[in-house]
Amino acid sequence: MVARIITGVFVAGLPVFIMLGWASCAKKKKPFYPVLLSAINCNASTGYYKALDVCSASNPCPVGKLSVELIPLYPDGIAFSSPVPACSDSGIDDDGAPYSTTGIDGITRYACIHRPAGGTTRPLIIWFHPGGKGTATHLYEETNLRKKADTYDLGGTSAGYVIAAIQGRALHYPTAWPRDGFHHDFYFRSLGVPSKNPDIAFTDALIDQIVSEGGIDTNRIYVMGWSNGAMFAQLYAIARHETATAGGNRVASAAVYSGGDPFHSINQGDNCRLNPYPGSNVPIKIIRRSCDGGLACDPIHQVWFDTPPGHETEGWISIAADRVGTTPDVTTIDGYGNVVATGCASDISQCALFYGAGEACASLTASECNNLGAILNHVRWPSGRREGGDAADREAILLDFLKNNTL
Length: 407
Hints:
Elements: E1 2-11, E2 14-24, E3 42-43, E4 47-48, E5 99-102, E6 108-114, E7 122-128, H1 138-141, H2 145-148, E8 162-166, E9 169-171, E10 181-183, H3 198-212, E11 216-226, H4 228-242, E12 253-257, E13 284-289, H5 299-305, H6 313-324, E14 329-333, H7 348-355, H8 371-378, H9 395-403
Parallel strand pairs: 7-8, 7-11, 11-12, 12-13, 13-14
Antiparallel strand pairs: 1-2, 3-4, 5-6, 6-8, 9-10
C-alpha cells in the first residue's frame, strides 16, 4: 500500500499542493495510478460516451472530488458551471469584460480577447489554460503572450497578433484521482462538424466569430495550451487542421507546454482510448520540463509521479507519428528554463523506490528531479515570470514555431 504525503504551500502567490514524498511498505514495479472499481462508459470512436457533466446547483462537484488546489477556495464544493475570468493582470493589460455567449449545452461561455488597434491583418492565437484551478486569467498573470500581442512579429501584414483565452467549464472529471475543476474536455472526442463536445463547438464558434469581424490572416490561425489546455489544444489542432469549422476556418499549427496524448485511456485498464486515432499532419511544438510531476517527461517519470494514461510526452511523440501522422517537435527545458539536450532527468532515489537498487537503476545518478521540483516545474509556464525573468522566457520558441508553420 502506498500513500501520498501532501501539503499545501504558496509559490509566488500561487497555491500549489506539493507531493513531498511517498510512504511505502513495499516496493512496486507498476504505476500506482488506481483502477476505478466500476467501469466507465467508453467506446473506441469518441472515448468517453458523452460530454463531461458540468458542476451545477443540482449536480455540484463535491469537495471530496475537487482537484486539491481548489479545496481551500471552495470548501463546500463547486455548484456553478463556469467562473467568469478577469481579463487583466490586476488591472494591467486590461481587456475589459470577457466575451460571452451561450454554448451548445446552454452554459454561458467566456473568453478573454485582445485585438491590437489599427493595422490590416494579423494571426489569431487561441490559448487554453491549465486544468484544476486554471482560468483564462492565467494568460495575463502567468504568461507574457498578452504583453507581446501588440508588437511580436508572427508573420502578419501588421505587427502583433489577436489572442483569445478560452475559459474552461467546471467539470465532473471521470479520472480515478479526484480532479473535478475548471477544465477543457478532451475525453469526449466528438471531432466532427458540428461537434457534440461543448468545448470543441465553442472553440469553432469563437474562431468563426473573430474571423467574421475582420483583420485575421486565416492562413495563420494557431492554438496554444498548458497541461489540460495542451491536451485539448493538440486534440483540436489535429481535428481542425484537416476539417474546417462551419465558417471554413482551419488550424495551421499548435504550440503547447506540458502536453501528452489526448486520445489515450482515461484510467488504467479502461476502453476509452480511441481506435483508430484521427489522422493529421498538423505541425505541433511541445516544450516540456526534464522533470514534471503533472505531465511526465517519459514513461519512467510516469511511473514515478503517477500521472494518468497518456500524461507523458516521450511516448506521445512516437504514438503521434505512428497513429496520427505527425511528429511533435519537442524542446526540453530544466527547472530554471534552460534548454537541455540530455532529455528527461533521472534520480536514483526515485528509481530505487520503484525498482529496487538493482540493474535497472545502475546507470542513473542523483538529480533535482524529486516530487517537490517536479510539481513546481509543472505549474510554471515557460515565460520566466516565476523563474528568473526575461532570461528564462522561452515563449519565443513556441511563437516562432507557429510563425514558421502556416497553412
